[in-house]
Amino acid sequence: MSDRIRTDSDAAARGRRILEALRLYQAADAAMRRRTRQAMSMSENDVLVLRFLVRARGEGRTVTPTDIARYLGISTASTTALMDRLEQSGHLERTRHPSDRRSVLVTNTSQADDEVRPTLDDMNERMMAATAGTTDADADVIVAFLERVQAAADEVAPVLAEVDR
């Protein structure tokens, strides 16, 4: 076997090994998120919005219904229904924008913080523990890889739509 064929074969095997590890992480992450949603009796979008609001509050950012719709990639009607549901359950509140009477600001409530924060903090602590011992050089390689994977995933077009033509 030539060196080039062996090198190509080694690279393919290495790529498969890396992608399999990534798939296993994605499956574990999806299962963890499912358990979290079930424990909180919420939909995926409900939990995503609460996490989005918690993060925005921590960063000192305001959030509007439009921000939520863009973040989730859903219609304004779906966003309104989601916010109605979370407001009824005591997880978010809407207030008038202080300088724009036409706009509404959305924030999570202290009840939402009390319910979501322990789960997010526990998850964050576990993930940070997994990064222990990682050097700056390791982090640079990992982040660059994940950015390439994200870009590749973002470029994937729905193939089924093209097959139906």
Fold blueprint:
Elements: H1 3-40, H2 44-58, H3 65-72, H4 76-88, E1 92-96, E2 104-108, H5 110-130, H6 136-155, H7 159-163
Provide an overview of this structure.
The protein is 73% helix and 6% strand. By secondary structure, the chain is mostly helical. The protein has a two-stranded antiparallel ribbon with strand order 1-2. Helix 2 packs across helix 5 and helix 3 packs across helix 4. The mean pLDDT is 87.
Put the structure in a nutshell.
Helices cover 73% and strands 6% of the residues. It is mainly alpha-helical and 165 residues long.
**Weakly predicted, low-confidence segments:** none
* Major sheet characteristics: 2 strands, antiparallel
Strand-pairing-aware structural class: mainly alpha
N-to-C CA distance: 44 Å
Strand content: 5-15%
Number of helical stretches of at least 4 residues: 7
Shape: elongated
| Computed CA radius of gyration, to the nearest angstrom | 21 Å
Q: Residue share in helices? A: over 70%
Mean pLDDT: 87
Strand order of the largest sheet: 1-2
Order of helices and strands: HHHHEEHHH
User: What's the count of strands?
Assistant: 2
Give the tags:
two-stranded antiparallel ribbon; 2 strands; mainly alpha; single chain; 6% strand; 165 residues; 73% helix
